[in-house]
Design goal:
By secondary structure, the chain is mainly alpha-helical. It has one domain. It has 14 helices and no strands. Helix 2 packs antiparallel against helix 3 and helix 3 packs across helix 9. The protein is globular.
C-alpha cells in the first residue's frame, strides 16, 4: 500500500510528460522484463497448468493489471491526486460487493464495521477534518475513469480465488506479459497524437512505477489475497491515503496536524477490525 500511494503521486506528477497509456504499457513491459528471468524455471514447470487455464489467466492479467492501470492513469490526467485517493477508498467497499456477486461471500458485521471506521479515518485525513471540503470537490471526467478503474480492481481481487495452482512468480510473469500485450495497441494509438518527454523526473517515475508498485506491490497483494482472502486484504487499501499523507509530511515538508493523528488512529482501528478472520472456508 505504501508503494501504491507513491504510484498515484507519480502518475499525476508526470501527466504532462508521459501520456497515460504509454506509462501503463511501459510499466508492465518493464515489470515483465524484470520478472521473466527469475520466473523462467517456474514457468517451465507450470507450463501445462498455464496452458490449461489460459482463459482465467488472460482475464486476470487484462483487468487486474492492464485495464485497471490504464484507466487509472487516464483519470489522473484530469483529476487531482486527492480525488483519486478518495475514490480509491471505495475499493474496500466494492471488493466485498464483488465477492458477494461472484462467490456469495458475506463479510462479518465486525469486518463491515471496520471498513466503515477506516473509511471515516480516510475522509478525515483527506478533508483535513472539514467535511465541507467534500462538497467543494468538482466531479469531472477523470473521477469517472478512476472510479471505473477501482471497480475493475474490485472484480480482479474477487476473481483471484480462481487463479490456477501455479507458483506466484509464474502468475506474476504471465499476468504482467498479458498486461503489456493488452496495453500495446493502446500505446501505439496514443503515440499518433502524444509523445513522451523524457525528462529526468519522468524517467525516474517510470522506473518507480515499473518496480515497486508493479513487481513488489502487485505480487505482495496477490499473495495476501491467497493467504487471508479478498475482503480482508482489500481493507488494507485504506492505508493508501494514509501513506500518501505521511509521504507528503515527510518528503514535502507538510505539517502534521491533530486531524492526521485522529484519521490515522481510525484507519488503523478499522483495518484491524476488517482484517479479522471470519468464515475461513468462504473467505480464504
Amino acid at each position: 500500500m505504501l508503494f501504491w500511494a507513491g504510484n498515484t503521486i507519480a502518475g499525476r506528477g508526470i501527466r504532462d510528460d508521459v501520456p497515460p497509456l504509454a506509462l501503463a504499457w511501459l510499466r508492465w513491459t518493464i515489470a515483465a522484463l524484470i520478472v521473466l528471468p527469475v520466473a523462467w524455471p517456474y514457468l517451465k514447470r507450470d507450463r501445462a497448468v498455464i496452458f490449461a487455464h489460459w482463459p482465467i489467466l488472460t482475464l486476470l492479467g487484462s483487468i487486474g493489471a492492464g485495464t485497471f492501470v490504464s484507466l487509472y492513469y487516464v483519470g489522473l490526467t484530469t483529476t487531482p491526486a486527492i480525488n483519486a485517493m478518495i475514490i480509491n477508498s471505495a475499493a474496500p467497499i466494492l471488493i466485498p460487493f464483488a465477492s458477494y456477486i461472484l462467490h456469495r461471500d458475506r463479510p462479518s458485521s465486525v469486518q463491515a464495521a471496520g471498513v466503515v471506521v477506516s473509511l471515516l479515518g480516510v475522509l478525515i485525513v483527506l478533508t483535513r477534518g472539514d467535511y465541507a471540503f467534500l462538497l467543494s470537490l468538482n466531479v469531472n471526467q477523470g473521477d469517472l475513469w478512476v472510479l471505473t478503474a477501482v471497480a475493475m480492481w474490485a472484480v480482479y481481487t474477487a476473481l483471484l480465488r480462481k487463479q490456477p495452482p501455479i507458483h506466484w512468480l509464474s502468475f506474476a510473469a504471465v499476468t504482467f506479459v498479458v498486461a503489456s500485450i493488452v496495453n500495446f495497441p493502446l500505446f501505439v494509438g496514443e503515440a499518433f497524437y502524444r509523445s513522451i518527454n523524457p525528462t529526468p523526473m519522468a524517467i525516474f517515475a517510470i522506473l518507480y512505477v515499473s518496480t515497486l508498485p508493479s513487481v513488489i506491490a502487485q505480487i505482495f497483494f496477490n499473495r495476501s489475497v491467497e493467504l487471508i482472502g479478498a475482503n480482508r486484504a482489500g481493507a488494507f487499501m485504506h492505508f493508501i491515503p494514509l501513506f500518501g499523507a505521511a509521504l507528503a509530511i515527510i518528503l514535502l515538508g507538510e505539517e502534521l496536524h491533530p486531524f492526521h493523528l485522529v484519521g490515522f488512529a481510525l484507519i488503523l482501528t478499522g483495518v484491524t477490525l476488517a482484517s479479522r478472520p471470519h468464515n475461513v472456508a468462504a473467505d480464504a
